[in-house]
Structures are given as structure tokens and as C-alpha cells.
Amino acid sequence: MKVHYVDLAKETIGPPVTVRAYLTQTVAEFLEVVAKVLDVPLASMRCVRECYYNDLRLLANPSRTLRIEGFIKSNKVGSNQFKVQSVSVSIT
């Protein structure tokens, strides 16, 4: 499967990186592999699957298998890292 790292701030798409994935893997397992290959913290990573041209779907359900998510042999996946902002709320 080809994975592209997308830098939203610079509006650039990195070169494809091949990641071996099995259709029986869960989304959580797949995201762990992608995070390791791209050297990105899993907690601040989002991945989307390109179903068709201009049809992107967020991989949000970690317990579903890749087959259930609709993956086929030649899917493209985009990944980006987002900043986690801590929000503090004062209770008075």
C-alpha cells in the first residue's frame, strides 16, 4: 500500500512510501505500522484513505479491519501530523 505524508502547513505531499498491510489487520494495527514507518507520533497522526479521485475517508474506527473499511490491494493512504493543543479550563 502506498502512503503519502501530507504537510498541511506547507501544502506539500511527500513521495510515496510502501507499507505492507493485510486486509485482516485492524485500523489501529495499520496506523501503528504507518506511524513507525513515517516516524510520526501515533497520538498526533491522522490517516485518510483515497477511495476514488477526490473521495477521502478518515480512518477513525480503530477496531474495524481494513477489509471492512473497503481497502483493496492498491489503495493510497494520506497521513499528516497535527499539533495537539492543551486546553485548560478554570472552574470558579
Describe this structure in words.
This protein is of the alpha+beta class and 92 residues long. It has a single domain (2-81), classed as Roll (Ubiquitin-like (UB roll)), CATH 3.10.20.90. It is 13% helix and 30% strand. It has one helix and six strands, in the order E-E-E-H-E-E-E. Strands 1, 2, 3, 4, 5 and 6 form a six-stranded mixed β-sheet that branches. The longest helix is centred in the middle third of the chain and has 12 residues, at 27-38. The model is unreliable at 84-92 (pLDDT under 50).
Q: Key features?
A:
92 residues; Ubiquitin-like (UB roll); 6-stranded mixed sheet; 13% helix; globular; disordered C terminus
Write the layout of secondary structure elements.
Blueprint: E1 2-7, E2 12-13, E3 17-18, H1 27-38, E4 45-52, E5 55-58, E6 76-81
Parallel strand pairs: 1-6
Antiparallel strand pairs: 1-2, 1-3, 4-5, 4-6
Low-confidence stretches: 84-92
3D shape: globular
Separation of termini? 51 Å
Order of helices and strands: EEEHEEE
Q: What is the CA-based Rg, rounded?
A: 15 Å
Instruction: Round the mean pLDDT to the nearest integer and report it.
Output: 79
Number of strands: 6
Specify the number of helices. Answer: 1
Question: Biggest sheet, open or closed, and with what strands and sense?
Answer: 6 strands, mixed
The CATH homologous superfamily corresponds to Phosphatidylinositol 3-kinase Catalytic Subunit, Chain A, domain 1
Shape-level CATH architecture: Roll
What's the CATH first level? Alpha Beta
Number of domains: 1
